[in-house]
Amino acid sequence: MVRWLSDDEQATWQAYVRLRQRMDAAISAGLAEDGLSLADYELMVALSAAPNGCLRAKELATEVCWEKSRLSKHLARMDARGLVERRPAEEDARGVIVQLTPQGRLALERAAPNHVDLVRRVFIEPMTAAEAQVLRALADKVVAGAERVADLGA
Question: Closest Cα to residue 60, out of 95, 109, 111?
Answer without folding.
Answer: 95
